[in-house]
Amino acid sequence: MPSYALITGASSGLGLAMAEALARRGRHLLLVARHRDPLEAVAGELTQRFGVEVLFRACDLGEPLRLSGFLLELEESDRRIDLLVNCAGVRSYGHFLAQEWADEQDLIELNVLALTRLCHALGNRMAVHGGGQILNVASLAAFQPGPWMATYAASKAYVLHFSEALREELKQTGIRVSVLCPGPVTSPLRWVERLRDGRRCLSPEQVALYTVRALARNRAVIIPGQGNRWLARGCRFASRWLARKVAGMINKRYRPRLPQ
Ligand SMILES: NC(=O)c1ccc[n+]([C@@H]2O[C@H](COP(=O)([O-])OP(=O)(O)OC[C@H]3O[C@@H](n4cnc5c(N)ncnc54)[C@H](OP(=O)(O)O)[C@@H]3O)[C@@H](O)[C@H]2O)c1
User: Fold this and answer.
1) Is 254 annotated as catalytic?
2) Nearest to 42 by CA among 88, 4, 11, 86
3) The domain containing residue 232 runs over which residues?
4) Phi, psi (5° rounding) for residue 6?
5) Tens digit of pLDDT for each residue in 226-243?
6) Which residue's CA is minimally distant from atom 8 of ligand 1?
């Protein structure tokens, strides 16, 4: 019975690059995102190029009932998932009070609740099978408060701390937990494209390659890019007021260029 890597947010950006990097290494995949057509296209292409089995499932993970249905399906199937890559994530940007509450809630439902629930459900299955691996995708934004993207940065701080805590807790179960904290990545997200001026961005493929190697070495916190690693370290040593001031200044600077 083959085992699969389940990748959320696998139809685009980082999730897609992770799917390709893992398929290249012969992993069978189960891809998840909301829209079926892009998933089907990705699954077809990866199967053809790498000869691996690629299953896909369209599911809005931010909808608790739909997520329940998906988890039930997984439980009833005899497919073994030995790698979970929690990559699906959304962001909001701008003045917190000006955000639509529904968007803020959707962000928390997906970035925090769905990720945590997937770790719980699949972690339990992995424990029964004697082990597995979980990769949660946070961000460089996780290392300090993020004025002008307060909810997003806070959701990623949650992912970072939660994943590190889980890593310690789950050691005895044979489940290895890692957390990926990329800086800005070139991606279809237009606002990220606009952030690129003057800053060097890694491509999703570069991030995925670095991450897959780091996973093989069971690294705890994965930060692709030397500059990004220095930034993360700097945040740890800076006082909190300085870290939030600087983050606020940087984030606010890009605000006028962002879509409202
Ligand atoms: N891009 C960056 O610069 C950057 C930097 C640091 C961290 N990150 C993190 O990396 C992850 C991927 O970012 P990305 O830029 O590669 O994103 P992206 O290109 O926008 O892709 C997002 C993926 O998630 C899926 N998705 C969105 N909402 C979903 C939902 N409710 N349920 C299920 N799937 C959903 C999307 O497909 P559908 O639309 O079909 O659902 C898509 O496959 C995120 O967690 C992000 O926070 C990104």
Assistant:
1) no
2) 11
3) 3-257
4) -95, 125
5) 999 999 999 888 899 999
6) 139
